[in-house]
């Protein structure tokens, strides 16, 4: 009896101790986490500011080839061919050239070409003509296929010549090298490589300081057809 009362007393004390506010359960420690063999994910750096892929030029440099025709300038030679009079002017006429076009982004372009420009007329009494070697450098702003630019034209060895029917020189006059300015409007057809259509104006003066001491105005307006390769 006495032992039963003692057991009940101990049980009551145990229950009071467990349910009392001061009693706290000890946290069970979490099992240690094994170190991972993989490196922690890196924080991505901010992406550099770039053009959309569809606007980025596929190539920054192109080879160009073109042919053109120009009109204008001072009258140099008057001739009669098959009873039809004609005139050769200092700004005329045909030209072929080749060079490079640099297009680092969609909004600008720089082109440089070296060529040959000439005009001549053959008749029963001989041949008359004019020739020069033009170096042209033009910087342009671009929008889509359009380019509008300005630049410098250097004409090397501008020459007037006249030969008789037997090929003998009647006149062979080489003028001073000349420097002038240019304006150009061109339109490019095609994705990157393709065809160029353009119009250009050239202001240039030819001077002879060794023979006639004359100045010839070679200012002209022309058109050209070109290709990007």
Question: Architecture, according to CATH?
Answer: Beta Barrel
State the end-to-end CA separation. Answer: 116 Å
Weakly predicted, low-confidence segments: none
Mean pLDDT across residues: 83
Structural class: mainly beta
The H/E string reads: HEEEEEEEEEEEEE
Number of strands: 13
**Helix residue percentage:** under 10%
Shape label: rod-shaped
Describe it.
Strand 4 (94-105) and strand 5 form a beta hairpin. The protein has one helix at residues 2-19; strands at residues 61-71, 75-81, 84-89, 94-105, 108-123, 126-143, 146-164, 169-174, 178-189, 194-203, 205-207, 215-217, 220-228. The chain is 8% helix and 58% strand. The mean pLDDT is 83. It has 229 residues and is mainly β. The chain is rod-shaped. The longest helix is centred in the N-terminal third of the chain and has 18 residues, at 2-19. The chain has a single domain, classed as Porin. An 8-stranded antiparallel β-barrel has the order 1-4-5-6-7-9-10-13.
Tags for this entry?
mainly beta, 8-stranded antiparallel beta barrel, single chain, 58% strand, Porin, rod-shaped, 8% helix
Q: Mind sketching the topology for me?
A:
Elements: H1 2-19, E1 61-71, E2 75-81, E3 84-89, E4 94-105, E5 108-123, E6 126-143, E7 146-164, E8 169-174, E9 178-189, E10 194-203, E11 205-207, E12 215-217, E13 220-228
Antiparallel strand pairs: 1-4, 1-13, 2-3, 4-5, 5-6, 6-7, 7-8, 7-9, 9-10, 10-13, 11-12
